[in-house]
């Protein structure tokens, strides 16, 4: 989850650069960019029921840098600024509102905005602006090197064999890219690091909760079996 949490932190930076009033309002409410997690990791397919809209988004994401999903998520939040600013400055209220991806979103318009954001803030530049560095070998940072030059199925196979598979097989610890510090982003370095740390803490709590739920479900299942001798005999018979 670490790479995704970094991407969500960078999303906050895009909102800050595009709409400081909206960013300050969301930050004051203590809302973390966890609200768009499912948008990024499922390409909105978990949140939209319209197949035409989903396929339109998949067309965009498959033909773009993998970071395009984050640009799109930022475009969605920016498009809802007036609605967000009209809400009480309350964590649960704003988080709940932002979590719900509108079913009637104008996908084409948001795709256009996402592409404009990518053109305005390149993948490397936005990492520098946020002071959050993704891995050197991430598909996001290697997209222009490994994927854009592809012209045929053979070149794809060669790239996978010569570059991608060695990366996957490499057991060494992955290193972040080197960022260029700018005067404009120095004051926001601490804020970005703080957001990332809070996301990491939240993710650990979620992982612990999922573990408890899984163990709890397992214990309940065993108790149910033990309380029903007929069921227990059936399970033993099937497994033997």
TrEMBL record:
One of its GO terms (biological process) is endoplasmic reticulum to Golgi vesicle-mediated transport. PROSITE patterns: TBC_RABGAP (PS50086). It comes from the Eukaryota. Pfam families: RabGAP-TBC. Residues 1-65 form the Rab-GAP TBC domain. The chain crosses the membrane at residues 60-78, 207-226. GO terms for molecular function: GTPase activator activity. InterPro entries: Rab-GAP-TBC_dom, Rab-GAP_TBC_sf, TBC20/Gyp8-like. Keywords: GTPase activation, Membrane, Transmembrane, Transmembrane helix. One of its GO terms (cellular component) is endoplasmic reticulum membrane. This is Rab-GAP TBC domain-containing protein. It comes from Mucor lusitanicus CBS 277.49.
């Amino acid at each position: 989850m670490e790479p995704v949490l970094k991407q969500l932190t960078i999303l906050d930076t895009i909102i800050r650069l595009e709409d400081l009033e909206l960013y300050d309002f969301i930050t004051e409410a203590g809302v973390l960019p966890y609200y768009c997690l499912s948008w990024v990791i499922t390409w909105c397919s978990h949140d939209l029921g319209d197949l035409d809209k989903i396929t339109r988004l998949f067309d965009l994401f498959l033909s773009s840098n993998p970071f395009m999903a984050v640009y799109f998520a930022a475009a969605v939040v920016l498009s809802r600024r007036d609605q967000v600013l009209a809400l009480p400055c309350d964590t649960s209220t704003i988080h709940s509102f932002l979590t719900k991806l509108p079913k009637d979103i104008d996908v084409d318009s948001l795709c256009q905005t996402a592409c404009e954001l990518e053109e305005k803030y390149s993948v490397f530049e936005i990492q520098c602006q946020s002071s959050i560095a993704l891995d050197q070998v991430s598909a996001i940072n290697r997209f222009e090197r490994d994927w854009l030059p592809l012209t045929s199925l053979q070149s794809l196979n060669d790239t996978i064999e010569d570059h991608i598979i060695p990366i996957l097989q490499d057991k060494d610890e992955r290193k972040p890219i080197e960022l260029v510090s700018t005067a404009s982003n120095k004051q926001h370095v601490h804020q970005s690091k703080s957001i990332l740390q809070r996301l990491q803490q939240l993710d650990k709590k979620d992982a612990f909760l999922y573990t408890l739920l899984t163990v709890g479900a397992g214990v309940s299942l065993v108790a149910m079996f033990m309380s029903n001798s007929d069921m227990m005999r059936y399970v033993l018979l099937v497994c033997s």
